[in-house]
Amino acid sequence: MMLVNLLARQSRLVITALAVALCVMVGVFDGLSGPDYSLAPFYLVPVVMAAWFAGKRTGYLLSFTSALVWLVAEMAGGRYYRLDYALYWNDFMELLLFLLTSLFVSVLKGALEREHGMSLTDQLSGLPNRRHFFELVGGEIRRNHRYDTPFTVAYLDIDNFKTVNDTMGHAEGDKLLRQVGTIIATAVRETDTAARLGGDEFALLLPETARESALTVAVKVRQQLKEDVERRWPVSFSMGMVTYLKSPASIDEVVSRADRLMYEVKNEGKDALRQDVVGESRLVIS
Prior knowledge:
single chain, about 290 residues, alpha+beta, Alpha-Beta Plaits, 2 domains, about 15% strand, about 60% helix
């Protein structure tokens, strides 16, 4: 597993060089083993490595390289073939095997990556889902513990969303959720993350963001929502936002605090923003 993680961090050029070197190494041993032993299956190792870590084209390149090295090793090993063209036919078959293997590995990796991406994405809004958001919050907690950098987590709830579903239909409710997701994603900064946690709840993660900057982002988000959403649907937005100068130990504690703050806003009249700062004894309401 450590080797796989190490290879995954390398550039395509490094992976290609390692795969070619491994292919040549296999060819050398194949040639030295003489006519009695074949190491043909081992040529698949650099082909698979190249296709998985460097992409389909690099996999194809290693397929041709492996076929060529195999041919040279066969000749150097003095292997006997009754028919003159049998050597080249076998080499063509090896090349076909390598190419098909490279194609299969590339398709498999692409499918796994798409499946992984879908498992981290909310299918309705296209935003990161709860699982992905919690993973990112965990990363910010670790960064806070190591570098003492602040971060902010905000929870946003659509007020009267049930009314939209009941009076205008669930299709209109889904349209509203997609529109809210689009606005939030475009209103935040490139370094921020907007996520849909489920139902009509959304969340923001603002890395390396203290109280004032976080408030600026939140006000911008609310302003965009008022301009683009509240005039089209009978809804408003309640937001609870917590800036962590010193974060708690657990992800649940971080996000539940913002969640509780958001529900305080809803219980006290809705359509407001409340910010709490962990590490300071001040509360901002706007």
